[in-house]
């Protein structure tokens, strides 16, 4: 019997996409399972109340509950560091590991790792977020040395509403961004139905598509010592080996 691998995932309370998508990804890995803990998140905005949703203490409480099931890893399956700053995820991972003794990762830090290892400096950004959130994400990436050469967003704020965005709308935004010929495109929201579209869009456009549910699953599996190339049908990311 193969050693069982349990992936813990911190989940925004109003998210309805990342749990079924993460579980679907792991169907090719029968020894692996995903386990989720929620904390309150209902809106994405640049306001004090919206920032407070990502208070480290609330996230640590959820991580501590996940630790009870003895996971191999705990991942923050969310993109808040995109507008709050990448250092917030770095501190969160350190705090989770100190509190639980479990290796930690995040969607955004995994994406940044992929960009660095692949030499990606020109990327396209697809999100459902509001204008000012989108601008802040692009600014944070620019300051880190990554140039957002094209973007599309839907100017929405309610986190639940992101799950209602159709696959066709996501395809349209990705195709429009692709006209700028970025080195990669990220679908940057874990409550969008982007991950199931990655393989087909890569085949159509010839550009790597990095969805942020996929990035944290990829990194979690790598930390757990799982060969991600066994996971097929979800895009080129899972065939990467660095």
Walkthrough of the structure:
- With 242 residues, the chain is α/β, with parallel strands linked by helices.
- The chain folds into two domains: 5-107 and 213-233, Rossmann fold (3-Layer(aba) Sandwich), CATH 3.40.50.12500; 110-211, 3-Layer(aba) Sandwich (Rossmann fold), CATH 3.40.50.1860.
- 43% of the residues lie in helices and 17% in strands.
- It has eleven helices and eight strands.
- The strands form two sheets. A four-stranded parallel beta sheet has the order 2-1-3-4, with helices on both faces.
- α1 links the parallel β1 and β2.
- α3 (56-67) crosses α5 and α6 (107-118) packs across α11.
- The protein is globular and about 45 Å long.
Quick overview of this protein structure:
With 242 residues, the protein is an alpha/beta fold. The protein contains eleven helices and eight strands.
Question: Which descriptors would you attach to this protein?
Answer:
single chain, about 240 residues, alpha/beta, Rossmann fold, 2 domains, four-stranded parallel beta sheet, globular
The helix tally amounts to: 11
- In the CATH scheme, the class of the largest domain would be Alpha Beta
- The total strand number stands at 8
Oligomer: single chain
Order of helices and strands: EHEHHEHHEHEHEHHEHEH
What shape does the CA trace take? globular
User: Compute the gyration radius: what is it?
Assistant: 16 Å
- Give unreliable regions as ranges: none
Task: Give the mean pLDDT.
Answer: 97
* Second rung of CATH, namely the architecture of the largest domain: 3-Layer(aba) Sandwich
The level of helicity is 40-55%
| Content of β-strand | 15-25%
- Number of structurally distinct domains: 2
Q: How far apart, in Å, are the first and last alpha carbons? A: 27 Å
CATH fold annotation of the largest domain: Rossmann fold
Instruction: List the strand order in the largest sheet.
Output: 2-1-3-4
- Structural class by SSE content: alpha/beta
How is the main sheet built?
A: 4 strands, parallel
